Amino acid sequence: MRNLKPKPKIMSQSNTQLVETIKKEYADYQEKLKEFHEKGKEKMVKALAKTRSTKESTGKILILSRQTFPVWLNCSHYMVDLSSNFARNYKNPEETLSEIQMHSVITVNDFLPAVSEQLIYSGKAWWLYWRIPGATNTTESHSISSPLKVSFQWTDKKEGGLWRSVESRVLPEDPTSPAKNIRRTCDLIWEASKTAATTGIVANEKCSLDPEVSDGSCSTTGTHSSNITRTAKLYLDSQKSYDWFRFRFLEFAEVVAKRIEQKVMHDALNFNSTSANSNSPITVYDPVAGACWFPLLVKTKLPHLVHPICSDISSDAVAVARDNFKMNNLLEENNDVTLLTGCCFWIQDFGKLRVLKYSKNVTFYPCKTAL
Amino acid sequence: MSRSTLAKQHFSMENYKNRIWGFRDQSNTQLTGDLFDPLKEAIAKDPSLKPRFVYFLPPQDTLPENFNSIASAALDVPPVSVFVPEDIDDELYFFHRMAKELPSLLARDASVFISVAHSKVEKVKEVLRKEEYGWPESREWIGRWGEGINSRSVNKRRFYNPSGLFEYEFP
Protein backbone atom coordinates (compact mmCIF):
# COMPACT_ATOMS: atom_id res chain seq x y z
CA MET A 1 0.00 0.00 0.00
CA ARG A 2 1.25 3.39 -0.87
CA ASN A 3 2.26 5.51 2.08
CA LEU A 4 0.53 8.84 1.72
CA LYS A 5 2.04 10.31 4.83
CA PRO A 6 4.29 13.22 3.86
CA LYS A 7 7.91 12.63 4.58
CA PRO A 8 9.12 15.06 7.24
CA LYS A 9 11.25 17.73 5.71
CA ILE A 10 14.07 17.09 8.08
CA MET A 11 14.24 13.42 7.04
CA SER A 12 14.66 14.34 3.43
CA GLN A 13 17.93 16.06 4.18
CA SER A 14 21.32 14.53 3.79
CA ASN A 15 23.40 13.91 6.89
CA THR A 16 25.51 17.00 6.29
CA GLN A 17 22.44 19.15 5.78
CA LEU A 18 20.87 17.66 8.86
CA VAL A 19 23.90 18.44 10.98
CA GLU A 20 23.93 21.99 9.65
CA THR A 21 20.21 22.40 10.36
CA ILE A 22 20.58 21.10 13.89
CA LYS A 23 23.56 23.34 14.49
CA LYS A 24 21.65 26.36 13.25
CA GLU A 25 18.57 25.50 15.27
CA TYR A 26 20.70 25.03 18.35
CA ALA A 27 22.48 28.33 17.80
CA ASP A 28 19.13 30.09 17.41
CA TYR A 29 17.88 28.41 20.54
CA GLN A 30 20.93 29.54 22.46
CA GLU A 31 20.46 33.09 21.19
CA LYS A 32 16.86 33.09 22.40
CA LEU A 33 17.87 31.75 25.77
CA LYS A 34 20.56 34.36 26.06
CA GLU A 35 18.07 37.07 25.19
CA PHE A 36 15.74 35.73 27.86
CA HIS A 37 18.52 35.76 30.39
CA GLU A 38 19.60 39.28 29.45
CA LYS A 39 16.04 40.60 29.71
CA GLY A 40 15.70 39.15 33.19
CA LYS A 41 18.97 40.72 34.16
CA GLU A 42 17.99 44.06 32.67
CA LYS A 43 14.80 44.12 34.70
CA MET A 44 16.79 43.56 37.85
CA VAL A 45 19.27 46.29 36.97
CA LYS A 46 16.43 48.75 36.34
CA ALA A 47 14.79 47.84 39.64
CA LEU A 48 18.06 48.33 41.47
CA ALA A 49 18.61 51.66 39.82
CA LYS A 50 15.18 52.98 40.82
CA THR A 51 16.17 55.43 43.44
CA ARG A 52 13.06 56.18 45.42
CA SER A 53 10.71 53.29 44.94
CA THR A 54 8.59 52.44 47.93
CA LYS A 55 7.19 49.33 46.27
CA GLU A 56 8.83 45.96 46.50
CA SER A 57 10.22 44.82 43.17
CA THR A 58 10.43 41.19 42.22
CA GLY A 59 11.55 39.24 39.20
CA LYS A 60 13.34 36.19 38.00
CA ILE A 61 16.34 35.48 35.84
CA LEU A 62 16.80 32.40 33.75
CA ILE A 63 20.12 30.86 34.62
CA LEU A 64 21.61 28.39 32.24
CA SER A 65 24.93 27.01 33.12
CA ARG A 66 26.87 23.84 33.43
CA GLN A 67 27.75 25.21 36.81
CA THR A 68 24.28 24.60 38.09
CA PHE A 69 24.70 26.02 41.53
CA PRO A 70 27.22 28.79 41.50
CA VAL A 71 29.11 30.69 44.07
CA TRP A 72 26.38 32.25 46.07
CA LEU A 73 24.63 29.05 47.01
CA ASN A 74 27.21 28.62 49.72
CA CYS A 75 26.76 32.13 50.95
CA SER A 76 24.23 33.32 53.43
CA HIS A 77 25.31 36.84 52.69
CA TYR A 78 27.24 38.03 49.72
CA MET A 79 28.81 41.40 49.36
CA VAL A 80 30.48 43.09 46.44
CA ASP A 81 32.92 45.85 47.18
CA LEU A 82 33.96 48.25 44.48
CA SER A 83 36.52 50.91 44.93
CA SER A 84 35.06 54.27 44.00
CA ASN A 85 38.05 54.73 41.78
CA PHE A 86 37.14 51.56 39.94
CA ALA A 87 33.52 52.61 39.59
CA ARG A 88 34.57 55.90 38.08
CA ASN A 89 37.05 54.37 35.70
CA TYR A 90 34.64 51.70 34.65
CA LYS A 91 32.13 54.23 33.45
CA ASN A 92 32.26 54.94 29.79
CA PRO A 93 32.00 58.73 29.40
CA GLU A 94 29.89 58.31 26.29
CA GLU A 95 27.24 56.43 28.17
CA THR A 96 24.37 58.34 29.62
CA LEU A 97 23.79 56.00 32.49
CA SER A 98 23.89 57.64 35.84
CA GLU A 99 26.40 56.49 38.40
CA ILE A 100 23.78 54.53 40.29
CA GLN A 101 22.65 52.79 37.12
CA MET A 102 26.21 51.91 36.29
CA HIS A 103 26.72 50.68 39.79
CA SER A 104 23.68 48.43 39.44
CA VAL A 105 24.97 47.07 36.16
CA ILE A 106 28.33 46.31 37.69
CA THR A 107 26.71 44.68 40.69
CA VAL A 108 24.50 42.41 38.62
CA ASN A 109 27.25 41.56 36.18
CA ASP A 110 29.52 40.83 39.06
CA PHE A 111 26.90 38.75 40.77
CA LEU A 112 26.31 36.59 37.74
CA PRO A 113 29.91 36.17 36.72
CA ALA A 114 29.78 32.80 35.13
CA VAL A 115 26.47 32.70 33.44
CA SER A 116 26.81 35.60 31.05
CA GLU A 117 29.12 33.69 28.76
CA GLN A 118 27.29 32.47 25.75
CA LEU A 119 29.44 29.40 25.56
CA ILE A 120 28.15 27.93 28.73
CA TYR A 121 24.51 28.06 27.82
CA SER A 122 24.29 24.34 27.74
CA GLY A 123 23.41 23.21 31.22
CA LYS A 124 20.19 22.72 33.06
CA ALA A 125 18.06 25.79 33.44
CA TRP A 126 16.96 27.16 36.73
CA TRP A 127 15.29 30.33 37.83
CA LEU A 128 16.88 32.80 40.09
CA TYR A 129 14.12 34.67 41.91
CA TRP A 130 14.99 38.09 43.25
CA ARG A 131 13.30 40.77 45.28
CA ILE A 132 14.16 44.29 46.31
CA PRO A 133 12.27 45.55 49.32
CA GLY A 134 10.72 48.99 48.88
CA ALA A 135 12.43 51.87 50.63
CA THR A 136 10.58 52.89 53.75
CA ASN A 137 12.06 56.34 53.92
CA THR A 138 14.33 58.55 51.90
CA THR A 139 17.46 57.54 53.74
CA GLU A 140 17.07 54.01 52.45
CA SER A 141 16.76 55.02 48.87
CA HIS A 142 19.72 55.63 46.68
CA SER A 143 21.11 59.05 46.31
CA ILE A 144 24.06 60.27 44.38
CA SER A 145 25.22 62.23 47.38
CA SER A 146 25.18 59.19 49.63
CA PRO A 147 27.57 56.24 49.26
CA LEU A 148 26.44 54.00 46.45
CA LYS A 149 24.75 50.97 47.80
CA VAL A 150 22.50 48.51 46.08
CA SER A 151 21.11 45.41 47.64
CA PHE A 152 18.71 42.66 46.83
CA GLN A 153 17.75 39.19 47.89
CA TRP A 154 17.60 36.03 45.85
CA THR A 155 16.55 32.43 46.09
CA ASP A 156 16.41 29.41 43.81
CA LYS A 157 12.93 28.28 44.79
CA LYS A 158 9.70 29.98 43.89
CA GLU A 159 8.17 29.17 47.24
CA GLY A 160 9.71 28.28 50.54
CA GLY A 161 13.27 28.95 49.48
CA LEU A 162 15.88 30.53 51.65
CA TRP A 163 16.36 34.17 50.67
CA ARG A 164 19.97 35.20 50.58
CA SER A 165 21.18 38.78 50.64
CA VAL A 166 23.49 40.52 48.27
CA GLU A 167 24.84 43.92 49.06
CA SER A 168 27.05 46.09 46.96
CA ARG A 169 28.83 49.08 48.26
CA VAL A 170 31.59 51.38 47.17
CA LEU A 171 34.62 51.41 49.35
CA PRO A 172 36.43 54.63 50.03
CA GLU A 173 39.62 54.92 48.09
CA ASP A 174 42.54 53.57 49.97
CA PRO A 175 45.84 54.11 48.24
CA THR A 176 47.57 51.76 50.67
CA SER A 177 45.21 48.92 49.92
CA PRO A 178 46.97 46.09 48.08
CA ALA A 179 43.78 45.06 46.33
CA LYS A 180 42.68 47.43 43.62
CA ASN A 181 40.21 45.02 42.11
CA ILE A 182 36.61 44.43 42.90
CA ARG A 183 36.34 42.35 46.02
CA ARG A 184 33.59 40.05 47.06
CA THR A 185 32.84 39.09 50.55
CA CYS A 186 30.87 36.08 51.48
CA ASP A 187 29.84 34.92 54.90
CA LEU A 188 30.51 31.23 55.10
CA ILE A 189 28.69 29.40 57.78
CA TRP A 190 30.50 26.46 59.23
CA GLU A 191 28.46 23.99 61.14
CA ALA A 192 29.77 21.18 63.21
CA SER A 193 29.01 19.38 66.38
CA LYS A 194 31.53 19.17 69.14
CA THR A 195 30.85 17.41 72.36
CA ALA A 196 33.12 17.60 75.34
CA ALA A 197 33.42 13.89 76.03
CA THR A 198 34.06 14.21 79.72
CA THR A 199 31.33 16.57 80.79
CA GLY A 200 28.76 16.27 78.08
CA ILE A 201 28.70 20.02 77.75
CA VAL A 202 28.40 21.19 74.21
CA ALA A 203 30.23 24.26 73.06
CA ASN A 204 28.64 27.01 71.11
CA GLU A 205 31.25 28.89 69.26
CA LYS A 206 31.06 31.92 67.05
CA CYS A 207 34.04 33.22 65.23
CA SER A 208 34.40 36.17 63.00
CA LEU A 209 37.46 36.55 60.88
CA ASP A 210 36.48 39.84 59.41
CA PRO A 211 39.59 41.97 59.95
CA GLU A 212 37.49 45.10 59.91
CA VAL A 213 35.33 44.12 62.83
CA SER A 214 37.26 41.58 64.78
CA ASP A 215 40.68 40.43 65.75
CA GLY A 216 39.76 36.98 64.59
CA SER A 217 39.34 35.57 68.05
CA CYS A 218 36.55 33.19 68.90
CA SER A 219 34.31 33.28 71.88
CA THR A 220 33.23 29.97 73.29
CA THR A 221 30.47 29.52 75.77
CA GLY A 222 29.00 26.42 77.32
CA THR A 223 25.47 25.76 76.20
CA HIS A 224 23.16 22.88 75.57
CA SER A 225 22.85 23.63 71.92
CA SER A 226 24.31 21.00 69.64
CA ASN A 227 25.47 23.45 67.02
CA ILE A 228 28.69 25.23 66.60
CA THR A 229 28.40 28.02 64.12
CA ARG A 230 31.60 29.47 62.87
CA THR A 231 31.34 32.33 60.48
CA ALA A 232 34.39 33.01 58.45
CA LYS A 233 34.40 36.15 56.42
CA LEU A 234 36.92 35.81 53.67
CA TYR A 235 38.23 38.53 51.47
CA LEU A 236 39.31 37.29 48.11
CA ASP A 237 40.77 38.76 45.02
CA SER A 238 37.68 37.98 43.06
CA GLN A 239 39.11 38.44 39.63
CA LYS A 240 41.51 35.59 40.04
CA SER A 241 40.52 33.35 42.85
CA TYR A 242 36.84 32.78 43.08
CA ASP A 243 36.32 29.86 40.79
CA TRP A 244 36.34 27.40 43.66
CA PHE A 245 33.51 29.36 45.15
CA ARG A 246 31.07 28.29 42.48
CA PHE A 247 30.74 24.76 43.67
CA ARG A 248 30.20 23.34 47.08
CA PHE A 249 33.88 23.20 47.85
CA LEU A 250 33.18 24.48 51.32
CA GLU A 251 32.20 20.95 52.26
CA PHE A 252 35.53 19.66 51.00
CA ALA A 253 37.41 21.88 53.39
CA GLU A 254 35.01 20.98 56.12
CA VAL A 255 35.66 17.27 55.70
CA VAL A 256 39.42 17.77 55.83
CA ALA A 257 39.22 20.16 58.79
CA LYS A 258 37.12 17.61 60.63
CA ARG A 259 39.66 14.87 59.90
CA ILE A 260 42.46 17.10 61.17
CA GLU A 261 40.59 17.66 64.39
CA GLN A 262 39.97 13.95 64.74
CA LYS A 263 43.64 13.12 64.23
CA VAL A 264 44.79 15.76 66.67
CA MET A 265 42.35 14.41 69.23
CA HIS A 266 43.51 10.87 68.51
CA ASP A 267 47.15 11.85 68.93
CA ALA A 268 46.41 13.55 72.21
CA LEU A 269 44.50 10.59 73.60
CA ASN A 270 47.18 8.14 72.53
CA PHE A 271 50.17 10.30 73.42
CA ASN A 272 51.21 9.81 69.87
CA SER A 273 54.79 10.93 69.84
CA THR A 274 55.49 9.34 66.48
CA SER A 275 53.50 12.03 64.79
CA ALA A 276 54.93 15.46 64.59
CA ASN A 277 55.75 17.31 67.74
CA SER A 278 52.48 17.86 69.54
CA ASN A 279 53.11 21.58 69.78
CA SER A 280 53.84 22.05 66.13
CA PRO A 281 50.99 22.79 63.75
CA ILE A 282 49.65 20.25 61.31
CA THR A 283 51.02 20.87 57.84
CA VAL A 284 48.45 20.97 55.06
CA TYR A 285 50.03 20.85 51.65
CA ASP A 286 48.43 21.64 48.31
CA PRO A 287 50.84 21.00 45.43
CA VAL A 288 48.56 22.51 42.80
CA ALA A 289 47.07 25.17 44.98
CA GLY A 290 46.17 27.88 42.49
CA ALA A 291 45.27 30.84 44.65
CA CYS A 292 45.38 28.44 47.55
CA TRP A 293 41.67 28.41 48.24
CA PHE A 294 41.70 25.03 49.93
CA PRO A 295 44.44 25.59 52.52
CA LEU A 296 42.98 29.07 53.02
CA LEU A 297 39.62 27.60 53.98
CA VAL A 298 41.17 25.01 56.27
CA LYS A 299 43.36 27.64 57.87
CA THR A 300 40.31 29.84 58.34
CA LYS A 301 38.50 27.00 60.00
CA LEU A 302 41.42 25.95 62.19
CA PRO A 303 43.61 29.03 62.41
CA HIS A 304 45.85 27.86 65.25
CA LEU A 305 46.09 24.24 64.28
CA VAL A 306 47.36 24.18 60.73
CA HIS A 307 50.28 25.39 58.74
CA PRO A 308 49.36 25.61 55.05
CA ILE A 309 51.92 24.97 52.34
CA CYS A 310 50.75 26.28 49.00
CA SER A 311 52.56 25.57 45.77
CA ASP A 312 51.55 26.34 42.23
CA ILE A 313 52.84 26.66 38.70
CA SER A 314 51.67 30.24 38.54
CA SER A 315 53.65 32.77 40.51
CA ASP A 316 50.75 35.12 40.03
CA ALA A 317 48.40 32.66 41.68
CA VAL A 318 50.82 32.35 44.56
CA ALA A 319 50.93 36.13 44.82
CA VAL A 320 47.12 36.18 44.93
CA ALA A 321 47.25 33.50 47.61
CA ARG A 322 49.59 35.64 49.65
CA ASP A 323 47.24 38.60 49.32
CA ASN A 324 44.25 36.47 50.30
CA PHE A 325 46.01 35.18 53.39
CA LYS A 326 47.10 38.70 54.22
CA MET A 327 43.65 40.17 53.78
CA ASN A 328 42.29 37.58 56.16
CA ASN A 329 45.00 38.18 58.74
CA LEU A 330 46.27 34.67 58.24
CA LEU A 331 49.69 35.50 56.91
CA GLU A 332 51.41 36.45 60.06
CA GLU A 333 54.81 37.85 60.68
CA ASN A 334 55.98 34.60 62.16
CA ASN A 335 55.74 32.89 58.78
CA ASP A 336 52.49 31.18 59.41
CA VAL A 337 52.02 30.10 55.83
CA THR A 338 54.52 28.64 53.43
CA LEU A 339 54.04 29.69 49.86
CA LEU A 340 56.14 27.92 47.30
CA THR A 341 56.17 28.79 43.69
CA GLY A 342 56.69 26.18 41.08
CA CYS A 343 57.42 28.52 38.25
CA CYS A 344 58.07 32.05 37.28
CA PHE A 345 55.71 32.76 34.44
CA TRP A 346 54.66 36.28 33.78
CA ILE A 347 50.96 35.68 34.05
CA GLN A 348 49.55 39.08 34.69
CA ASP A 349 46.09 38.88 33.31
CA PHE A 350 44.15 35.64 33.46
CA GLY A 351 41.78 36.94 30.84
CA LYS A 352 44.58 37.14 28.32
CA LEU A 353 46.25 33.92 29.23
CA ARG A 354 47.80 31.98 26.46
CA VAL A 355 48.21 28.27 26.66
CA LEU A 356 51.58 27.58 28.14
CA LYS A 357 53.87 25.28 26.25
CA TYR A 358 55.23 22.24 27.94
CA SER A 359 57.64 19.56 27.08
CA LYS A 360 57.83 16.17 28.68
CA ASN A 361 61.58 16.30 28.88
CA VAL A 362 61.87 19.77 30.26
CA THR A 363 60.91 20.56 33.81
CA PHE A 364 57.21 21.02 34.11
CA TYR A 365 57.64 24.33 35.80
CA PRO A 366 60.18 25.92 33.53
CA CYS A 367 61.70 28.44 35.87
CA LYS A 368 65.03 28.36 34.17
CA THR A 369 63.48 29.13 30.83
CA ALA A 370 61.55 32.00 32.28
CA LEU A 371 64.50 33.45 34.11
CA MET B 1 60.79 36.72 20.34
CA SER B 2 61.47 40.43 20.00
CA ARG B 3 63.82 42.31 22.29
CA SER B 4 61.05 44.49 23.64
CA THR B 5 58.99 41.42 24.53
CA LEU B 6 61.95 39.91 26.28
CA ALA B 7 62.60 43.14 28.11
CA LYS B 8 58.98 43.29 29.16
CA GLN B 9 59.10 39.77 30.45
CA HIS B 10 62.33 40.43 32.27
CA PHE B 11 60.77 43.49 33.85
CA SER B 12 57.75 41.45 34.89
CA MET B 13 59.97 38.75 36.28
CA GLU B 14 61.81 41.27 38.39
CA ASN B 15 58.49 42.40 39.80
CA TYR B 16 57.46 38.88 40.52
CA LYS B 17 60.74 38.08 42.18
CA ASN B 18 60.05 40.85 44.62
CA ARG B 19 56.54 39.68 45.14
CA ILE B 20 56.91 35.98 45.44
CA TRP B 21 60.27 35.14 46.80
CA GLY B 22 61.05 34.26 50.33
CA PHE B 23 57.69 34.18 52.02
CA ARG B 24 58.80 31.65 54.54
CA ASP B 25 62.15 32.98 55.49
CA GLN B 26 63.54 36.39 55.05
CA SER B 27 66.66 35.33 53.23
CA ASN B 28 64.92 35.46 49.87
CA THR B 29 65.14 31.78 49.21
CA GLN B 30 63.18 30.90 46.15
CA LEU B 31 61.94 27.36 46.04
CA THR B 32 61.12 26.34 42.53
CA GLY B 33 61.11 23.21 40.45
CA ASP B 34 59.05 20.47 39.01
CA LEU B 35 55.74 19.85 40.80
CA PHE B 36 56.86 18.42 44.17
CA ASP B 37 60.43 19.73 43.96
CA PRO B 38 59.81 22.98 45.85
CA LEU B 39 58.44 20.97 48.76
CA LYS B 40 61.37 18.54 48.61
CA GLU B 41 63.71 21.48 48.87
CA ALA B 42 61.73 23.01 51.69
CA ILE B 43 61.72 19.73 53.62
CA ALA B 44 65.46 19.40 53.18
CA LYS B 45 65.82 22.71 55.00
CA ASP B 46 63.06 22.16 57.51
CA PRO B 47 61.86 18.58 58.01
CA SER B 48 58.90 19.75 60.07
CA LEU B 49 57.33 20.83 56.80
CA LYS B 50 56.64 17.22 55.84
CA PRO B 51 52.92 17.36 55.23
CA ARG B 52 50.53 15.34 57.30
CA PHE B 53 47.57 16.38 55.18
CA VAL B 54 47.64 16.82 51.45
CA TYR B 55 44.91 18.03 49.16
CA PHE B 56 45.35 17.31 45.48
CA LEU B 57 43.00 18.56 42.79
CA PRO B 58 45.12 18.48 39.67
CA PRO B 59 44.19 19.13 36.04
CA GLN B 60 42.58 15.95 34.77
CA ASP B 61 41.65 16.67 31.20
CA THR B 62 43.69 16.72 28.05
CA LEU B 63 43.67 19.88 25.99
CA PRO B 64 40.84 19.71 23.41
CA GLU B 65 42.01 19.73 19.82
CA ASN B 66 40.07 22.83 18.87
CA PHE B 67 41.01 24.76 21.98
CA ASN B 68 41.56 28.40 21.08
CA SER B 69 41.67 31.82 22.66
CA ILE B 70 37.86 32.14 22.70
CA ALA B 71 37.50 28.86 24.53
CA SER B 72 40.30 29.95 26.82
CA ALA B 73 38.53 33.19 27.66
CA ALA B 74 35.28 31.36 28.33
CA LEU B 75 37.01 29.06 30.77
CA ASP B 76 37.36 31.90 33.22
CA VAL B 77 40.31 30.13 34.80
CA PRO B 78 43.83 29.66 33.50
CA PRO B 79 44.02 26.67 31.15
CA VAL B 80 46.99 25.38 33.14
CA SER B 81 44.65 24.75 36.01
CA VAL B 82 42.35 22.62 33.89
CA PHE B 83 44.43 20.72 31.36
CA VAL B 84 47.42 18.44 31.61
CA PRO B 85 50.47 19.64 29.67
CA GLU B 86 49.75 20.07 26.01
CA ASP B 87 51.87 17.25 24.65
CA ILE B 88 50.74 14.70 27.19
CA ASP B 89 47.85 12.51 26.17
CA ASP B 90 47.22 10.87 29.54
CA GLU B 91 44.54 12.70 31.44
CA LEU B 92 45.70 11.00 34.63
CA TYR B 93 49.26 12.25 34.24
CA PHE B 94 49.25 14.10 37.55
CA PHE B 95 47.75 11.19 39.45
CA HIS B 96 50.55 8.92 38.20
CA ARG B 97 53.09 11.44 39.37
CA MET B 98 51.38 11.85 42.71
CA ALA B 99 51.21 8.09 43.18
CA LYS B 100 54.90 7.71 42.53
CA GLU B 101 56.42 10.82 44.06
CA LEU B 102 54.28 11.97 46.96
CA PRO B 103 54.47 9.13 49.52
CA SER B 104 58.17 9.66 50.25
CA LEU B 105 57.46 13.27 51.19
CA LEU B 106 54.73 12.58 53.71
CA ALA B 107 54.94 12.77 57.46
CA ARG B 108 53.95 9.73 59.48
CA ASP B 109 50.26 9.02 59.86
CA ALA B 110 49.44 11.23 56.90
CA SER B 111 46.29 11.57 54.86
CA VAL B 112 46.15 12.41 51.20
CA PHE B 113 42.87 13.79 49.96
CA ILE B 114 42.25 13.81 46.25
CA SER B 115 39.47 15.38 44.25
CA VAL B 116 38.56 13.48 41.14
CA ALA B 117 35.95 14.15 38.49
CA HIS B 118 33.05 11.77 39.14
CA SER B 119 33.48 10.18 35.75
CA LYS B 120 37.14 9.35 36.39
CA VAL B 121 36.98 8.02 39.91
CA GLU B 122 37.35 4.35 38.97
CA LYS B 123 40.23 5.04 36.58
CA VAL B 124 42.12 6.97 39.23
CA LYS B 125 41.48 4.33 41.86
CA GLU B 126 42.84 1.77 39.47
CA VAL B 127 46.02 3.77 39.04
CA LEU B 128 46.51 4.06 42.77
CA ARG B 129 45.83 0.36 43.32
CA LYS B 130 48.83 -0.55 41.21
CA GLU B 131 51.22 -2.64 43.21
CA GLU B 132 54.21 -0.59 42.17
CA TYR B 133 52.71 2.44 43.86
CA GLY B 134 51.50 0.62 46.96
CA TRP B 135 48.81 3.02 48.00
CA PRO B 136 46.27 2.05 50.66
CA GLU B 137 42.57 1.66 49.92
CA SER B 138 40.62 4.86 49.67
CA ARG B 139 37.75 6.16 51.67
CA GLU B 140 35.06 8.14 49.91
CA TRP B 141 33.98 11.25 51.75
CA ILE B 142 32.08 13.03 49.05
CA GLY B 143 30.74 11.31 45.99
CA ARG B 144 28.32 12.27 43.29
CA TRP B 145 25.39 11.55 45.54
CA GLY B 146 27.17 11.82 48.83
CA GLU B 147 26.00 13.79 51.77
CA GLY B 148 29.43 14.88 52.92
CA ILE B 149 30.48 15.02 56.50
CA ASN B 150 27.70 17.35 57.47
CA SER B 151 24.41 15.80 56.52
CA ARG B 152 22.48 18.87 57.59
CA SER B 153 24.11 21.11 55.04
CA VAL B 154 24.05 18.73 52.11
CA ASN B 155 20.90 16.94 53.08
CA LYS B 156 21.27 13.77 51.05
CA ARG B 157 20.68 15.42 47.76
CA ARG B 158 22.89 15.46 44.75
CA PHE B 159 26.18 17.04 45.54
CA TYR B 160 26.66 19.84 43.06
CA ASN B 161 30.31 19.61 42.39
CA PRO B 162 32.10 18.07 39.42
CA SER B 163 34.47 16.22 41.72
CA GLY B 164 34.34 13.94 44.70
CA LEU B 165 36.65 13.76 47.70
CA PHE B 166 38.63 10.66 48.64
CA GLU B 167 41.08 10.04 51.44
CA TYR B 168 44.10 7.78 51.44
CA GLU B 169 45.47 7.16 54.90
CA PHE B 170 49.13 6.31 55.18
CA PRO B 171 50.62 4.65 58.27
What is shown here, in short?
The complex is a heterodimer of chains A (371) and B (171). By secondary structure, chain A is of the alpha/beta class.
Tag the structure with descriptive keywords.
heterodimer; A: 371 residues; alpha/beta; 7-stranded mixed β-sheet; 3-stranded parallel β-sheet; 8 helices; 12 strands; 29% helix; 24% strand; disordered C terminus; B: 171 residues; alpha+beta; Rossmann fold; 4-stranded mixed β-sheet; 6 helices; 33% helix; 13% strand
Structure characterization notes:
The complex is a heterodimer of chains A (371) and B (171). By secondary structure, chain A is of the alpha/beta class. Chain A has a domain at 19-74 and 90-135 and 143-165. Chain A contains eight helices and twelve strands. Chain A has a seven-stranded mixed β-sheet with strand order 1-3-4-5-2-6-9. Chain A has a three-stranded parallel β-sheet with strand order 10-11-12, covered by helices on one side. In chain A, a hairpin with an 8-residue loop joins strand 4 (149-155) and strand 5 (164-171). Chain A is extended and about 85 Å long. Chain B is an alpha+beta fold. Helices cover 33% and strands 13% of the residues of chain B. Chain B is built from six helices and four strands. Chain B has helices spanning 3-20, 37-45, 69-75, 93-101, 121-129, 151-154; strands at 53-56, 111-117, 138-142, 163-169. In chain B, strands 1-2-4-3 form a four-stranded mixed β-sheet, covered by helices on one side. The radius of gyration of chain B is 19 Å and the shape is globular. Residues 1-30 and 146-159 of chain B have low confidence and may be disordered. At the A-B interface, helix 5, strand 10, helix 6, strand 11 and helix 7 of A face helix 1, helix 2, strand 1, helix 3 and strand 2 of B.
Question: How many strand segments of chain B?
Answer: 4
| Quaternary structure | heterodimer
How many domains, in number, for the residues of chain B? Answer: 1
What does the largest sheet of chain B look like? 4 strands, mixed
CATH level 3 topology of chain B:
Rossmann fold
Helix content of chain A: 25-40%
Beta-strand content of chain A: 15-25%
The number of helical elements of chain A comes to: 8
Rg from Cα of chain B: 19 Å
- CATH architectural designation of chain B: 3-Layer(aba) Sandwich
General shape of chain A = extended
- Helix content range of chain B: 25-40%
What is the molecular shape of chain B?
A: globular
The chain-level mean pLDDT of chain B equals 72
List low-confidence stretches of chain B: 1-30, 146-159
Distance between the termini of chain A: 80 Å
Our estimate of the beta-strand percent of chain B is 5-15%
